[in-house]
Amino acid sequence: MKKLVLIFTLVTSYSAWAQGDIDAGKLKATTCVACHGNDGNAIMAQYPKLAGQHADYLTKQLADYKLALTSDGAQGRSNAIMAGMASALSATDMADLGAYFSSLPISPNTTPEAAIAIAEPLYRFGDPERDIAACISCHGPRGDGTSLSGFPKISGQNAQYTQLQLQHFRAGTRNNDLNAMMRSVAEKLNDDEINALSAYVAGLH
Questions:
Q1: Contact 197, 123 (CB under 8 A)
Q2: Phi and psi (nearest 5°) for 28?
Q3: Residue range 144-172: average pLDDT?
Q4: How far is 4 from 78, CA to CA, in rounded Å?
């Protein structure tokens, strides 16, 4: 029953976002180029690739950045740079940007061999002894996530960006994950595991 309630919550949470316009989003994305690249594939590894990400997920993140600004960090997702970028965006702007970046192909990454031994068991099976859920249960075997449930695509993402987000979840400085799911996982991971998982999912396909 609890699983059914969680699924319903996820679906209703992410079904509310309006469908955006790709062409309108392309025009509005000119200010995003400096950090996220001309094609949504950020060259600087500390920034996320937006290309190929689920539109609803991108829309929600933009809304969360704005929410953090308007709530003095009490809600949403705090980030000084993105708060300024999102502050003037309307719900329509956010949906358009989400639709545009979602329509672009993500550039490929590779997984270093050294990361597999640590990361693959955690990704596929978790660690029941430490109450760590398997990453595959939300992000899928290929790291594609699910748009309907709001789980992001992590395959192909810049490893450094993923590493930073896991560190933020672990520290509690990022807290816009539904039902604290990412925080509950990340708080049990050590540095070596975070580094390995970040590198592993970068090339997952």
A1: yes
A2: -80, -10
A3: 97
A4: 30
